[in-house]
Amino acid sequence: MKILIVDDDKSSGSAVAEFIEEQLGYQIKLCHSGDDALSCLKDDDYQMVISDMRMPGISGLDLLKRIKLLPSGSSIEVIIMTGFGDLESSLDALRSNAYDYLLKPVNVEELAILIERVAESIRLKDESCNYKKNLENGVSNDRKEESERINFYETTIRDITSVGKVGVFSDAMRAVVKMAEQFHEDRSVPVLIEGETGTGKEVMARLVHFGHESDMLQPFISINCSAISPSLFESELFGYDTGAFTGARKEGKLGKLELAQGGTLFLDEIGEMPLDMQPKLLRVLQQKEMYRVGGNKAISLDVRVIFATNRNLKQMVAEKTFRNDLYYRLNTGRLYIPPLRERKEAILSFTQVFLDQYSKKRGRRFRFISKAAKKILQEYDWPGNIRELKNSIERATLLFNDLELKPEHLRFLQAEDTDFVTSEQALVPGKIVLPDDELDIEQLELEIVRKALKKFDNNKSKTADYLCITRSALRSRMNKL
Q1: Run of H or E residues at 353
Q2: 330-342: buried (b, 16+ CB within 10 Å) or exposed (e) per residue?
Q3: Judging by DSSP bridges, how do beta strands 264-268 and 220-224 pair with one another?
Q4: Within 13 Å of residue 87, how many CA atoms lie on the same side as its CB?
Q5: What is the pLDDT of residue 424?
Q6: pLDDT, averaged across the chain
Q7: Is the peptide bond before 105 cis (omega within 30 degrees of 0)?
Q8: DSSP state of 188
Q9: Reported confidence tier of residue 429, pLDDT bands at 50, 70, 90
Q10: Is the CA virtual torsion 49, 55, 58, 59 positive or negative?
Q11: Residue 134 to residue 145: CA distance in whole angstroms
Q12: pLDDT of amino acid 430
């Protein structure tokens, strides 16, 4: 949509034009008199005119009347900007077929709502005209393009069972989603989902499981391999029979594989599975049957198995910390989710979705992203990927309440390396320089965890060893991050 702004006050007109162009993304032409505006309307097509009421020469009301006399005037929507004292003139403008009026100084939120309303009205008119034209002419190409356009928007926002609406804002992720839907059709193929922490591996696993037509009767059982003690792993996965070992329940226990019968077992962080368990899992994948711990009866399985990891399994195979036969079996169906830094075109779309979501949840005014904030968001590396972006926007809406997301709301991203120490000050005893005002020790601790994770490529075992804490303590801090 092309919009013509007409205002003899250059600073006021420029402010309105800049807001519409940067925040709403429409093409803008700025004029400072009615005569200039009429010349522009003769030279180019504009769908909307926003004009000041009081201007030397041709007033806003006169300009409105002349626009409506143009051959294309009936299709041009006109909004009049007026002072409180000109309300009577505004009513005259509405009688002369103005779309609406705005009081000055202009409230940008009201302006945005009004423009989007006009855009929607124009879109509906255009679609109605195109529909009639297509019916009359029977143009198959137009129908094909319309079908492709609908398909594009259907694949942009997906509704995934147990997750909710998920944005697919890049060609790379559209390809991943398409492949996930193909894997959904064949339950016999094990699927390996690879990607960094926070890229949405479990979301993709649920898409493989549920597909388009969600069947909530099919179980989706999830296990985090890093959260289970090696000594309990076998009984957790396979279950056990009565009296299998000291301390076992008298009635025995179903394992996660049996609980997933007819559905999906999702093994997250498969790289953390104990080596002695890996051949047992491989046998299950090959034979489609299992034995409970302490049992002697083979149990047939009808289970789709999906695996996820943020580690390089191929490298682990070379280091002999992961079995090569299991790796090649898992790699039958492979999905790789690229990190957010490799699909920067999606960052602002995700940001807008999260901004709308948390603003609505907390009753905040946030609706737009400033140009400077966009630059910060796109230049940041996002080591925690979509999860970190989501948490960052939630934090901004928790602490602030503004119309625009601004750099000061994202200061914690810019200050990652300088919040507490300078580049010359290492985080080791004896070299920390305390700030003069205050020190948030919890935030400092989380910053250390963030840096350590980055240092070891999000390998939780190495990070926990480096920080001299347990993996569960590390997970607790990662949840806060």
Answers
A1: helix 347-362
A2: beebebebbbbee
A3: parallel
A4: 2
A5: 34
A6: 84
A7: yes
A8: T
A9: very low
A10: positive
A11: 12
A12: 44
Q: How far apart are CA 143 and CA 154, in angstroms?
A: 16
Total residues belonging to the chain: 481
Per-residue pLDDT tens digits for 366-421: 988 888 999 999 999 999 999 999 999 999 998 898 888 999 999 888 654 444 43
Least confident of 39-53, 197-211, 324-338, 419-433: 419-433
* Residue pointed to by tokens 């006399």: 69
Which tokens belong to 170?
A: 């890049």
Structure tokens at 89: 């003139």
Instruction: Report the sign of the C-alpha dihedral through residues 312, 318, 319, 325, in that order.
Output: positive
On whether the CB atoms of residues 70 and 44 are closer than 8 A, the answer is no
The three-class DSSP label of residue 29 is strand
- Comparing CA positions, the residue from 186, 190, 160 lying closest to residue 173 is 160
- Render 285-331 in DSSP notation, one character per residue: HHHSEE--BT--S-EE---EEEEEESS-HHHHHHTTSS-HHHHHHHT
The answer to whether residue 84 scores a pLDDT higher than 80 is no
Please state, in angstroms and rounded to a whole number, the distance separating the CA atoms of residues 242 and 459: 38
Residue whose pair of structure tokens reads 């000041």 in the numeric block: 52
Whether the pLDDT of residue 354 is over 70: the answer is: yes
Closest CA to 163 of 206, 201, 218, 212: 206
Token reading at 413: 């991203």
Greatest CA separation for the chain: 98
Centroid of chain to Cα 349: 7
Residue 429, SS3 per DSSP: coil
- Is the overall model pTM greater than 0.85, yes or no? no
What angle, 0 to 180 degrees and rounded to 10, lies between the N-to-C axes of helices 171-184 and 201-210? 40
Give the pair of three-digit tokens for residue 216. 């909530």
* Tens-place pLDDT, residues 300-327: 999 999 999 999 999 999 999 999 999 9
What amino acid occupies position 318?
A
Do 309 and 269 touch, CB atoms closer than 8 A?
A: yes
DSSP H or E run through 50: strand 48-52
